[in-house]
Amino acid sequence: MRSVVRSLRQLRRFNQYHAERHSSAVRLIRQQNGVMCGSTSRSLSTLRRSGEISRFSSPGVELMRSMFSTVAADSIKDIGRGGPMVEYERRIASGELVDGDSFQLDTIQELQRLYEELIQNEEDCQLDRYKSSEKSGRSRWLWSRLITQPSTYAPVKGLYLYGGVGTGKTMLMDLFYEQLPSNWRKKRIHFHDFMLNVHSRLQMHKGVSDPLDVVAAEISDEAIILCLDEFMVTDVADAMILNRLFRQLFSKGVILVSTSNRAPDKLYEGGLQRDLFLPFIDTLKERCIAHPIGSALDYRQLGSAEQGFYFVGKHYSTLLKQKLQSLIGDEEPSPQTVEVIMGRKLQVPLGANGCAYFPFEDLCDRPLGAADYFGLFKKFHTLALDGVPKFGSSNRTAAYRFVTLVDVMYENKARLLCTAEAGPIELFDNIVTVAEAHKVSPRSSRSQKSDDTDLCVDNELGFAKDRTISRLTEINSREYLEDFEARLGQQQQQPPQPLQAVDNADVVLA
């Protein structure tokens, strides 16, 4: 029935564009839409048999109906067959996805429920970007400085999906996002990128009395449905502004859909001044339904990790450069400069033909962050990283940067070539959470650290390492590399080049 209602709403919008010529038809279609909305328990065929639709027929309505006959027919045929659940089932049936476990099915049902609530409350949530643009000039933040506007919390709560790595959170959220109508005000963005954007906007409006309010107004003007991937708070600057930012976003009607490895109550656990962050957790739980994905299966590691460019051992540095040159082709690599946000620049030691080379120290031992990495992957699709070390207390900061680098790389679907001291799992052997440290020894984490001088007890890093290991595994899988080559070939408007074979004896895969 919702498909019928949605079709009639489309008819009504078309009529509004032609109101001067078809004003009578507009009134009749609105009456017809009212009848249909009030009869959700009956099918369209029942209404036709009872004559309720025909009572509202007129030449104007019949004209509009004939113009949209194809759309109407498709909607009637697909009553109740829209949303993420349908697409999920289609992809499984076509072999694009493996059959999900009960946890994924529970999650896709939650997303379907949210989808249907949004369809039902489309007008109350002001989702249609074209309708909202009619009065955008009156609702911009400058006008709100003159007239205080009441809070308009959305009648629909958002969804906060959390669980282990590789359980399909991002895939399911993206599937949900793709099914939302294109005319809705929606945005899908990685949490790192979102916070960089917020800080950039704050810098832009630093002369305003309350720049955070301005930023919240701008974001809510652009998107009412905000999908954030990998919600993970590790930066004290982010933690201090999140509560005020999201209070204002929610009060302006924003609906949050997010994925995370951490439950809401575990966000920013052990962080500096966490007591100032706790109100945000209350706000998040008030405006979003927290839904756990409890699967222990990592779907990223189901791929056949038979080939890749992950070399274990310092002696493979020369081989790494040879493989990189073979991907570059005849062009000669040279030092380059990448511009990132707020006037920052990143120096690339060697780069050519979309490929960049860095020693590990240049990317992860220097004061760089997500902004620099996003800037890097906007210009380069392939990264050769030489000399990834094992991580512990002695290089904790570099470990954080490496985790962020892999997150940004994965988000941008980039290709990685690297040499490392150990395989992906062994790289993080010395990174443990407090709970893991107590399992090894019931003594305090401080005492535990004295047993192994390089053991790093860090909750945020301890939880993030599983995601990084999983993503490193997928990035080096055959499926990922084949998909990368296909996308690169499409971008270059030429057939994708075959993968270069790598001797499995030289490659260590998780």
Task: Summarize the topology.
Layout: H1 2-17, H2 19-37, H3 44-50, H4 59-67, H5 69-77, H6 84-94, H7 102-120, H8 129-133, H9 136-139, H10 141-146, E1 158-163, H11 169-179, E2 186-190, H12 191-204, H13 211-222, E3 225-229, H14 236-251, E4 255-260, H15 278-287, E5 288-293, E6 310-312, H16 317-328, E7 334-339, E8 345-352, E9 355-359, H17 360-364, H18 370-379, E10 382-388, H19 396-411, E11 415-420, H20 424-427, E12 431-432, H21 434-440, H22 445-451, E13 456-457, H23 459-475, H24 478-491
Helix pairs in contact: 1-2, 1-5, 2-4, 6-11, 7-11, 12-13, 13-14, 14-15, 18-19, 19-23
Commentary on this structure:
Belongs to the AFG1 ATPase family. This is AFG1-like ATPase. GO terms for molecular function: ATP binding. InterPro entries: ATPase_AFG1-like, P-loop_NTPase. With 510 residues, the chain is an alpha/beta fold. It is 51% helix and 13% strand. The chain has helices spanning 2-17, 19-37, 44-50, 59-67, 69-77, 84-94, 102-120, 129-133, 136-139, 141-146, 169-179, 191-204, 211-222, 236-251, 278-287, 317-328, 360-364, 370-379, 396-411, 424-427, 434-440, 445-451, 459-475, 478-491; strands at 158-163, 186-190, 225-229, 255-260, 288-293, 310-312, 334-339, 345-352, 355-359, 382-388, 415-420, 431-432, 456-457. The strands form 3 sheets. Strands 6-11-10-9-8-7 form a 6-stranded mixed beta sheet. Strand 7 and strand 8 (345-352) form a beta hairpin. Helix 2 (19-37) crosses helix 4 and helix 18 runs parallel beside helix 19 (396-411).
* Biggest sheet: strand arrangement: 6-11-10-9-8-7
Task: Give the fraction of residues assigned to helices.
Answer: 40-55%
Give me the secondary-structure category. Answer: alpha/beta
| Mean pLDDT figure | 78
First-to-last CA distance: 48 Å
Spans with pLDDT under 50 lasting ≥5 residues?
4-80, 137-141, 143-148, 443-451, 499-510
Q: Describe the global form.
A: globular
In oligomeric terms, what are we looking at?
A: single chain
Computed over alpha carbons, the radius of gyration is: 26 Å
**Strands, total number:** 13
Work out the helix count: 24
Largest sheet: 6 strands, mixed
Strand content: 5-15%
Organism: Urochloa decumbens
Keywords: ATP-binding, Nucleotide-binding
Family: Belongs to the AFG1 ATPase family.
InterPro entries: ATPase_AFG1-like, P-loop_NTPase
